[in-house]
């Protein structure tokens, strides 16, 4: 069991989310950075979909009551085990009583804590991902007790992984043209593809808004399907990039669709950082 001593900022249990329920208006949810979570789970020999703790901007503090092994991935939140600095992407043995703490993100924005075998969280609609009005809790809370199956350390990890975290620092988001992209003028398309855009303070698990405005002469569309990675152009000219907790339909023109790997990159961005769109064939 893990006792939550400090929660950090918006820390939650997430896996790869809910598939097959969007027709009922249920968001996909799930981890924001799937690449980071795949790496952490691979180090432990878990399936890639095992539930993890996702921490945003500021990490929490956790005390373990059972032996296990852990791996940390994503943002560097200066993790410490019993006040001794440890590294991301290492296989780490845990003993009863150990305290794991995280600080503010030094690079990246979201950090992941995986345990051997995953967390034994509530399953709703085939997923353990926390989401408002779907699961009992939206985030983990102080004094929560998070359970996992105890396991003695084997002394080594289940995988040797060469980690390239450059994707977190990249400013380039690879995209495909969206259903309404062709209705933009050549000038509008050029603005979108040649310009740089700034992540606004309005960014969360539902969507990232960008600061810069692109003149929009398109009419709103009939409410149509959207999914994580859909880039919408609002009547005011603002761009909204939908993320894992987004709604399932929308009425703004869909000008781009992020490549799956670009969602991982964007999820590690924070207010004031710059992104650019690169159109794929």
Automatic annotation (TrEMBL):
Keywords: ATP-binding, Hydrolase, Nucleotide-binding. It holds the Pfam family CT_A_B. SMART domains: AHS2 (SM00797). The keyword Transit peptide does not apply. Coiled coil: none annotated. Residues 23-281 form the Carboxyltransferase domain. The keyword Transit peptide does not apply. This is Biotin-dependent carboxyltransferase family protein.
């Amino acid at each position: 069991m893990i006792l939550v001593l400090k929660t950090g900022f918006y820390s939650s249990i997430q896996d790869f989310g809910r598939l097959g329920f969007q027709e009922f208006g249920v968001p996909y949810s799930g981890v924001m950075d799937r690449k980071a979570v795949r790496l952490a789970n691979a180090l432990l020999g878990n399936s890639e979909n095992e539930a993890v703790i996702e921490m945003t901007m500021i990490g929490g503090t956790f005390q373990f009551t059972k032996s296990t092994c852990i791996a940390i991935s994503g943002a560097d939140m200066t993790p410490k085990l019993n006040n001794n600095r440890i590294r991301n992407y290492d296989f780490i043995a845990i003993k009863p009583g150990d305290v794991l703490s995280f600080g503010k993100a030094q690079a990246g924005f979201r950090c992941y804590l995986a345990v051997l075998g995953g967390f034994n969280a509530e399953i709703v609609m085939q997923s353990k991902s926390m989401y408002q009005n779907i699961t009992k809790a939206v985030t983990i809370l102080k004094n929560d007790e998070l359970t996992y199956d105890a396991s003695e350390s084997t002394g080594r990890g289940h995988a040797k992984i060469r980690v390239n975290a450059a994707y977190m620092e990249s400013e380039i988001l690879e995209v495909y043209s969206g259903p309404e992209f062709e209705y933009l003028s050549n000038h509008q398309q050029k603005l979108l593809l040649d310009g740089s855009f700034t992540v606004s303070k309005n960014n969360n698990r539902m969507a990232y808004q960008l600061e810069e405005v692109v003149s929009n002469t398109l009419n709103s569309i009939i409410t149509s399907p959207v999914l994580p990675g859909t880039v919408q152009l609002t009547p005011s000219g603002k761009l909204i990039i939908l993320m894992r907790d987004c709604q399932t339909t929308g009425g703004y023109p869909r000008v781009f669709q992020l490549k799956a790997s670009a969602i991982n990159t964007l999820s590690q961005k924070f207010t004031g950082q710059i992104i650019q769109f690169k159109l794929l064939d």
